[in-house]
């Protein structure tokens, strides 16, 4: 797809320029956000391993996403994935499962009766990737790390898993509010995604 190729080239140019931006020039965040939105709308999408047709991203846009309080690796990574690649205008609610009452307009993830949660041996992040048809190799690499940390079966034996696990654990210990955990965790996954994107070149 020519458009996807052009966006990747634009992203490379942006990364090269950002690496030289030692003074955090104005407009940098806006440019990065625009590129992220373009990436989200042009991800290559294909049928899932189960043969299901991927969900339409437009049907998931502008929604309220609900998950359990006390975010850790899978929920932090999934929320980052949702806001970065699935629903750039996503709003999040962090709830107590014991008192939560579902609203028809909400989408739940990584919780009981959720629309997106663990399936078989896959964690929520992996399920989100498959159900939405996102096939970016950098996202797949992150999915393998999240899986190894969350499922603890060493399926992918990702060498990065130990370090990311400690980082997220420290983040959770330092920040009690889920909004803060998501903000700090998103920065981690933004950088991790950028690393794997560069590895593809």
Describe the protein's architecture and organization:
- With 201 residues, this protein is mainly alpha-helical.
- The chain folds into 2 domains: 42 residues, no CATH class; 145 residues, no CATH class.
- It is built from 7 helices and 3 strands, in the order H-H-E-H-E-E-H-H-H-H.
- Helix 3 links the parallel strand 1 and strand 2.
- It is globular and about 50 Å long.
- About 3% of the residues have low confidence.
What fraction of the residues are assigned to beta strands by DSSP?
A: 5-15%
Largest beta sheet: what is the strand line-up? 2-1-3
How far apart the termini lie comes to 17 Å
Query: Mean pLDDT score, rounded?
Result: 86
Number of distinct helices: 7
User: What is the subunit arrangement here?
Assistant: single chain
| Annotation, overall tally of beta strands | 3
- The assigned structural class equals mainly alpha
Instruction: Label the overall shape.
Output: globular
Largest sheet: 3 strands, parallel
Q: How big is the Rg? A: 17 Å
Name the helicity range. Answer: 40-55%
Short description:
With 201 residues, this protein is mostly helical.
Provide key terms for this protein.
mainly alpha, 201 residues, 3 strands, 2 domains, globular, three-stranded parallel beta sheet, single chain
How is this fold's topology laid out?
Elements: H1 2-19, H2 28-42, E1 64-68, H3 73-86, E2 91-95, E3 106-108, H4 124-132, H5 137-151, H6 161-174, H7 178-199
Parallel strand pairs: 1-2, 1-3
Helix pairs in contact: 1-2, 3-4, 3-7, 5-6, 5-7
């Amino acid at each position: 797809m020519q458009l996807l190729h052009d966006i990747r080239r634009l992203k490379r140019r942006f990364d090269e320029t950002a690496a030289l931006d030692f003074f955090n020039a104005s407009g940098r965040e806006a440019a990065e956000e625009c590129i992220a939105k373009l990436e989200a709308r042009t991800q290559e999408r294909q049928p899932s391993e189960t043969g299901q047709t991927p969900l339409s991203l437009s049907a998931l846009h502008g929604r309220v996403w609900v998950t359990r309080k006390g975010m850790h690796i899978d929920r932090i990574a999934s929320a980052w994935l949702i806001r970065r690649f699935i629903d750039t205008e996503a709003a999040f609610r962090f709830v107590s499962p014991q008192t939560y009452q579902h609203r028809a307009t909400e989408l739940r993830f990584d919780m009981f009766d959720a629309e997106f949660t663990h399936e078989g041996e896959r964690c929520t992040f992996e399920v989100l990737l498959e159900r939405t048809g996102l096939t970016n190799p950098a996202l797949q690499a992150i999915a393998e790390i999240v899986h190894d940390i969350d499922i603890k079966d060493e399926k992918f034996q990702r060498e990065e898993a130990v370090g990311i696990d400690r980082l997220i654990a420290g983040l959770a210990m330092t920040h009690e509010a889920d909004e803060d955990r998501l903000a700090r965790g998103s920065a981690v996954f933004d950088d991790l995604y950028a690393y794997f994107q560069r590895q593809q070149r």
